[in-house]
Amino acid sequence: MLTHVPISPVSPERYRDIVGDRWADVEGGIVTAQERLAGRAIWHVNSTARGGGVAEMLHSLLAYARGVGADARWVVIGGNADFFRVTKRLHNYLHGSSGDGGGLGEAEREVYEQNLARCASELRELVRAGDIVYLHDPQTAGLVRSMLELGARVIWRCHIGLDDPNTLTRTGWNFLKPHIEPADAYVFSRRAFVWEGLDHDKLWVVPPSIDAFSPKNEKLDPRLVCAIVEHLGISLDGGRVPTYTREDGSVARVDRRADLDQEVPVGAEDPLVVQVSRWDRLKDHAGVLTAFTEHVTDDRARLLLVGPSVEGVADDPEGAEVLQEVRAQRSALPDEMRARIHLAALPMDDPQENAVMVNAIQRRADVIVQKSLAEGFGLTVAEAMWKGRPVIASRIGGIQDQIVDGESGILIDDPHDLVSVADAIDGLLADSARAQRMGAAAQERVREMFLAPRQLVQYVALIVGMLDARDDRGAV
Ligand code: UDP
Questions:
Q1: CA quadruple 18, 22, 23, 29: dihedral positive or negative?
Q2: Which residue in 69, 74, 202, 381 is deepest, having the highest Cβ count within 10 Å?
Q3: Are residues 236 and 276 in the same domain?
């Protein structure tokens, strides 16, 4: 039921020049971590090692934690199809959406708890009293009690949320609340996501972050960008051998290709609009497609929708279905329009190779769209902003914390307003100077607020605060 994800240590020292004045805080956090966490393992538990934002962050953050001597570990829980059907439903409910239309009653509770009881019995062999267990998202909430019983200190981290909770959201909360309530700390990505009725003394708000040095975000020579995008089969830009630097510093070649739905590759001069996301209805691929095909007036522009190969993401049973729907929508378009729409499913066999594919595509884009209907944070937004791309995104969830409308990107007030999305695309394609200014401001915004060292410093404060609070309550 459990898979260990290996983590190679990386020193955060490489951020010294990037974060400037804030490096002193990072050094302070490192010293505190070394003093306070010695002898404790810090277990991070989630439900997938690849695909999606949580896996993306854990890869980087845990490498830096190990790089300063913290004993950070990562375990992925397994489950049967029923379990992941229930957890996907929970995910949708928490986002205020009914998902597959099923309920969250006693039968679902039994599926959920039985699966997690099996995971807990394996975790019992690993976790020791005094360890810190960091449980991520609904899939792992049911482990809180068993980890507390072992004498571990338990943090539950919720990466998702809704600005205005509805009845479905509350149903999701009520399903999970009995599980998470006893945890030592609850962490949310933004204040508006905090659930009603939780003990405020245990609450922390920690926005996510990206890693500037990962294959997903590392600098790429423009010729390499062309080479990788061409190798994938998406464009005809031309270039040299598609290489990139892996996390261990070695240089590797991109070998695999994308699974494409396209007629003619994108030409070097064609303006390219891109959305990168899992094949999830809340990312509203259908809406992006309709906005583009019915309302964008620039007829040179191409639209590229990018997501993972649907075999690759274990905990997302709806992926294949959604990709199928998007394919059908594209197929039904008149020939001329269909020729301007590209779908790319990227191989997930090697996460670092997949990451550099995304990196190159984001850098090749003239405009990035993230037209989600719900979004915990939206790492893809920060990733594109860091690459100096102008982003057009829905004014929802954590996206609002990232983009300052009109300065570091464009926010669309109503995510269903397709005309405004299309106007924003046309506007940026027509005014490349503005697009460039916005991209530069976006990069600065990410440097200030959304790079990994900020999150690491907050995590140290959170763990130390939680340990102190427990000591105050007289716990072991
Ligand atoms: N992603 C990826 N390959 C893909 C599609 C997405 O690596 O083919 C990554 C994307 O770059 C981002 C993460 O998956 O790092 C998605 O995170 P986000 O917060 O945007 O959305 P989530 O999937 O968590 O809802």
A1: negative
A2: 381
A3: yes
Protein residues whose CB sits closer than 6 Å to any atom of ligand 1: 52-53, 56, 216, 276-278, 306-308, 346, 354-355, 358, 377-380, 383
The domain total for the chain is 2
| Other Cβ atoms closer than 10 A to 57 | 23
Band of pLDDT at residue 238, cut at 50, 70 and 90:
low
Q: Are residues 260 and 192 in the same domain?
A: no
Nearest residue (by CA) to ligand 1, atom 15, is 53
Q: How far apart are CA 127 and CA 356, in angstroms?
A: 34
Distance CA 54, CA 67 (A): 20
In this structure, the residue with its CA closest to atom 11 of ligand 1 is 380
pTM of the model as a whole? 0.93
Q: Is 457 found in the same domain as 430?
A: no
* Token code pair at residue 186: 């609850």
Q: Which spans in 374-417 are helix H?
A: 379-386, 399-402
Range of the domain at 135: 2-209+451-472
Specify the pLDDT at position 476. 40
Residue 313 confidence (pLDDT) = 59
Same domain? For 295 and 423 the reply is yes
